[in-house]
Amino acid sequence: MKKQLFSLAMLLFTMAPCSQINADNQNSDSTIVENQEQDALRSFVSNFSDTSAFAYVKVGDQQVLLVSQETFGNNENSDLEAVATSIFALDAKGKIVSLGSIRSQGTLYPVSLSDDNKLMVAGHRFVNIYSIRGEVPDLYLDTHAEGEVQEMAEMFKIFEQGTPILFNKNRH
Question: Is the pLDDT of residue 10 over 70?
């Protein structure tokens, strides 16, 4: 009898997340895959120091984890912007890969996401725009513009239209 109750309890427990997904009307395969990717990346954050801040963003079609030690903002733990970040993603086999890091020139130019979901950093005389591509994800420098401020006006407009990525020191 105890074994049957245990089996019934396990069956109900395993069904609960499915009914929750259906109740939220979020049962598409892409949503489930994105949640699994984010869960794998979330478990990875325990490997970093307590001073690290984290952001989960989608760059192109790739879910990534951004980790920064160089953050600034009014709140000590959340809604922080970053000057530099390391980038991690999952490959096609579900293994975490490091894609490298990017750096802006200072707090006037936080790590940002463009309107077409690319990573951006800038400085007084440069703008870099990155994408992530490949089955084994890789970071690509799509656009590098450098020069005097007048020559860079169009690139700075693209950067300013982007959205600064908000980092959080909480490990969830």
Answer: no
Residue 5, pLDDT > 50, answer no
Q: How far apart are CA 84 and CA 121, in angstroms?
A: 9
Q: What is the DSSP letter of 25?
A: T
Q: Which amino acid belongs to residue 11?
A: L
CB distance 122 to 131 below 8 Å: no
Q: What is the pLDDT of residue 105?
A: 95
Contact criterion met (CB below 8 Å) for 114 and 97: no
Contact 81, 107 (CB under 8 A): yes
Record the pTM. Answer: 0.76
β-sheet with 96-103: strand ranges across: 53-59, 62-72, 81-90, 96-103
**Could you give phi then psi for residue 18, rounded to 5 degrees?**
-65, -45
Q: In this structure, are residues 115 and 161 in contact, taking their beta carbons and an 8 Å threshold?
A: yes
- List CB contacts of 24: < 8 A, sequence separation 6 or more: none
Helical H runs in the chain?
A: 2-23, 29-44, 153-161
